[in-house]
UniProtKB/TrEMBL annotation:
This is TonB-dependent receptor. InterPro entries: Beta-barrel_TonB_sf, Plug_dom_sf. It comes from the Bacteria. It is found in: Cell outer membrane. Residues 692-705 have a biased composition (Basic and acidic residues). One of its GO terms (cellular component) is cell outer membrane.
Length: 926
């Protein structure tokens, strides 16, 4: 296994000096520490106070958040970083308007960021608020309206060193993984410094470590050997068939000098070697990742951020044993046959075939934000270099051995001479992406209902992809360069306004329009046009409608990735109704065309109560995509009929190779309804309740917290030794706790942007807990693909498929629930999808995919919120212990054919090799 180069260490050393400089910064008032936040000691200051004024860090425009999370809400998720929080929020942040799989737009303090790396590993304790907004807000920041928006607002002062270690293993055994991470974060009046390093490793999981039935499809290679008919022949030897009393197509090798009777004894029963130990279901891997972010104010009023990071990863997969296919002439002294035959053997002397992959990514990003009069501007720049090297073992060099067998000097049934592998196939791709974007937002002029605002973006991008692959000695290269210049403008026009008293009976109504032009060096000029409306007829309800027409080019990787061949890939052949091992060809397709999308969306968001954090959301989305760019679909009869040149079969009709490179489909049509709700309720904590009772009795609630945590009275605090920088002082802890209990949240009518009540106040947590529940149901109304004109349309909801896991489920449900109180927390996530079917070449070859549900459970304990434990063990402050079980019931997708038999290629352990896994995590904030 290749070791990580010293470059990783060198890069990490470059990132460290900033942390040392931060330690030498001039003293200032103590920051909030991670341990204080973890213990809930800052809850009063954390509380989102909703007034008519604009919130700090709110997004621009008049579209308020659909959902807003307070620190107590965030803490209830029990996650460690921004990236993990976004993963938990995926049901709320998904969008049906994109091409599929788009991540949400991420903002920081209502501003664009240069790279997601800038905030990816920030600890969640540093977050003061999270706003989740609809796709229309993305337009105001120069993005396309196919991604929802998540805005993170950080605490103004914060300091923490976070250390986290975790181990993960499936309950079925066979593999394990581990991860260690250290993170330094400091936020103060000077800016922000974040330095992070993470290492991760996982062991390989082989087929032998799962209960799998060996695959009998494909050629019967075996360590002892099998004899099969010569190419084009229907049987091995008529004399053997006569002796066995049946036509013989395969016969096992039983000795080094077998006779015809030996082969007749095992006629049509092949030798089978279990090669599971030589094939991985999941490769071994190791990775290291580093990141450094420095944010400062320059030129007096410009907020600037610089980010530098790297991701290095290595993986190693086992692809099975190499096989030999020797032609044995009838004239050989070692042949008992009257005709030429083939001898198939597997060779274990050299071990399994390997695929080793190395990936090296380095990224640098900058961003600058400022104001010019009443206009806000943002300048972002980003450069990413990614290099991937792949080496795949090929088969054995049989030229000398075959010559010996043909000449009669080598016995294919006995001990074989030493063999060597042919030169390995190699592939390298190097991509470089550089981009600069400038965005300006401001008001153009005033109308009676409000200001007409606009957002303008200008951008330049340079992309290059150099690839080189060597397959069987054949060298293929690609050098793709793409230069693009783009411009986008968005216009928001207020029509009516309750606040301004303009047609206030209608409510708040605004229109928007946007246009984008993208000039690409290799695809010409692509355009995007869109328009919509934003209407709030009553304060509790907001409706959004939008239409967009967009052209999109394939990525350089889709066009020019190097060609890679992977042997022994198990697939299900729907034409023959069998599981076979094939060679899979992957890479880029230089013949791809740009696609064209028309999307319509109608969405509604309802917050029916002022004092209950409940929001209901419903969206209808319809899209038509022409020249859809897609990965190559699964090997169904419909797909092979449309792309016969992508499938290779042997003379017997058995599938042996699939060209899996991406293609264009003529048209795709989709429509769906997605609806659901989010509910978050505060739970009174034990100390909170006791403090309230003391206050109502006329006592001092501070005494409750001092007694619980074993803190001295303010006047009795020892002064001989000052506390560590940023550490929670006893009086500060009690004062924060008292304030948290005494201050009640003030609720107003303003939302995230100060307009209306959306995103309104959260229930006051004051150190208490949370109950959270969200449920979303997606109903797909249509999902069709026309491969090309003149062919039947594929209905993915009714028997057709483009993926190997069945058709498109008509129904999907996502449930997220959580409970936290007094430092203990539990979360249970559930996902369910309805069953599908995939029609085969005949009714007997149809596959049925069952309904499928998975449950994930996470239990965690924030020890710093447990005064009985922390009182005498102060070092436990800021400590969290987590026990997580993924796929709680060890569920796997069930697949059966028309006879109720599970195809070998759809065995449960192949669809999900890991199954249920248990993760233990220990996290400490200093």
């Amino acid at each position: 296994m290749p070791r990580f180069p010293r470059t990783a260490t060198a890069l990490w050393l470059v990132l460290l000096p900033g942390a040392a400089l931060a330690q030498q910064a001039p003293p200032e008032p103590p920051e909030v520490t991670g341990a204080e936040v973890d213990a809930g000691e800052t809850e009063a200051a954390d509380e989102i106070v909703v007034t008519g004024a604009r919130e700090r860090g709110a997004v621009i425009g008049d579209v308020p958040p659909e959902q807003q999370l307070s620190p107590a809400d965030i803490r209830a998720y029990g996650v460690s970083s921004v990236a993990e929080l976004l993963e938990e929020l995926s049901p709320q942040t998904g969008s049906g308007r994109g091409r599929g799989g788009e991540a949400p737009v991420v903002l920081l303090e209502g501003r664009r960021i240069g790279s997601f790396r800038e905030i990816r590993e920030l600890p969640t304790e540093a977050i003061l608020r999270v706003d989740i907004l609809p796709e229309e807000v993305a337009l105001k920041y120069g993005y396309s309206a196919n991604q929802r928006v998540v805005n993170f607002v950080l605490r103004p002062r914060f300091r923490a060193i976070t250390v986290e270690v975790e181990g993960n293993a499936p309950t079925d055994g066979g593999t394990a993984s581990g991860e260690a991470e250290v993170n330094y974060l400091r936020i103060n009046r000077l800016g922000r410094l974040n330095v992070e390093l993470e290492v991760e490793a996982q062991s390989a999981l082989t087929e032998a470590e799962r209960d799998l039935v060996p695959d009998s499809g494909g050629s019967p290679f075996d360590l002892a050997g099998n004899v099969v008919a010569a190419r084009g022949a229907a049987e091995i030897d008529p004399a053997l068939s006569a002796l066995a009393g049946t036509r013989v197509t395969v016969a096992p090798v039983t000795s080094a000098t077998p006779g015809l009777a030996d082969f007749a004894a095992g006629a049509n029963i092949a030798n089978v070697t279990d090669v599971g130990a030589f094939r991985t279901l999941r490769p071994s891997s190791q990775s290291v990742r580093g990141n450094a972010v420095l944010a400062r104010t320059i030129f007096g009023d410009v907020a600037a951020t610089a980010t530098l990071g790297f991701d290095f990863g290595d993986s190693r997969a086992l692809l099975g044993l190499p096989g030999i296919d020797l032609s044995l002439p009838a004239t050989s002294p070692f042949s008992p046959f009257g005709t030429e035959v083939r001898v198939l053997r597997a060779i274990d002397a050299l071990g399994p075939l390997l695929r080793e992959t190395q990936s090296r990514e380095v990224e640098a990003a900058i961003s600058a934000n400022g104001n010019a009069g009443d206009w806000r501007w943002t300048l972002t720049g980003n450069y990413t270099r990614n290099q991937t090297d792949t080496e795949t073992d090929r088969s054995l060099d049989l030229a000398t051995l075959q010559a010996g067998v043909t000449a009669g000097g080598a016995n294919p049934f006995g001990a074989l001479p030493a063999l060597a592998l042919l030169p390995a196939d190699t592939a390298r791709s190097v991509s470089n992406v550089a981009r600069v974007d400038g965005v300006a937002n401001g008001d153009l002029f005033a109308l009676p209902a409000g200001d007409v605002s606009t957002s303008v973006r200008l951008g330049l991008r340079s992309q290059s992809l150099d690839s080189r692959s060597v397959r069987a000695g054949l060298v293929q290269t690609a050098d793709i360069g793409r230069r693009s210049a783009n411009a986008q403008v968005n216009l928001d026009l207020p029509i009516t306004s309750r606040r301004a008293g303009v047609l206030d009976a209608i409510g708040d109504l605004s229109l928007n329009a946007n246009a984008e032009v993208d000039r690409l060096s290799d695809f010409g000029t692509l355009t995007t046009l869109g328009y919509g409306l934003n209407w709030s007829p009553i304060r509790a309800l907001r409706l959004i409608a939008s239409v967009s027409h967009e052209e999109g080019a394939p990525s350089p990787q889709q066009v020019g990735n190097p060609v890679i061949q992977t042997p022994n890939v198990r697939v299900f052949d729907f034409v023959n109704g069998e599981t076979v091992d094939v060679t899979l060809v992957e890479g880029g397709n230089p013949g791809l065309r740009a696609d064209n999308r028309d999307v319509f969306k109608l969405g509604a968001n309802l917050r029916p109560f002022d004092d209950i954090d409940l929001s209901l959301r419903a969206d209808y989305t319809s899209s038509t995509i022409r020249d859809l760019i897609s990965g190559f679909p699964t090997a169904t009869a419909e797909i092979e009929a449309a792309f016969p040149d992508r499938f290779t079969r042997d003379p017997a009709g058995r599938l042996i190779e699939i060209d899996n490179r991406p293609v264009n489909f003529a048209r795709s049509e989709r429509s769906q309804i997605r609806y659901g709700f989010n509910l978050s309720l505060p739970i009174t904590g034990t100390l909170q309740r006791r403090a309230r009772e003391v206050r109502e009795a006329g006592g001092d609630p501070r005494a409750v917290y001092r007694e619980a945590y074993g803190l001295p009275e303010r006047g009795n605090r020892r002064r001989e030794q000052p506390p560590a920088e940023g550490a929670a002082t006893p009086e500060g802890q009690a004062r924060a706790a008292e304030t948290a209990e005494a201050e009640r949240p003030r609720r107003g009518r303003g939302g995230g942007g100060g307009f209306g009540r959306f995103g309104g106040g959260r229930g006051g947590a004051q150190g208490g807990g949370r109950f959270q529940f969200s449920a979303f149901h997606t109903v797909r109304l249509t999902e069709t693909i026309l491969i090309r004109d003149g062919l039947p349309e594929l209905d993915l909801l009714d028997g057709s498929a483009t993926g190997s896991r069945g058709g498109q489920p008509r129904h999907e449900v996502q449930l997220r629930t959580g409970f936290t109180k007094d430092g203990f927390g539990a979360r249970l996530n559930a996902d369910w999808q309805s069953g599908t079917r995939v029609d085969g070449g005949t009714p007997a070859e149809t596959l049925f995919f069952d309904d499928f549900a998975t449950f994930d459970l996470r239990l965690f304990a924030n020890l710093g919120q447990m005064p009985d434990l922390v009182r005498d063990n102060r070092w436990l402050r800021g400590t969290r212990v987590t026990l997580a079980v993924s796929n709680l019931f060890n569920a796997r997708l069930g697949v059966r054919d028309a006879a109720g038999v599970v195809p070998l290629g759809y065995q449960p352990a192949l669809l999900d090799p890991v199954g249920r896994s248990v993760r233990v995590e220990l996290r400490k904030l200093f």
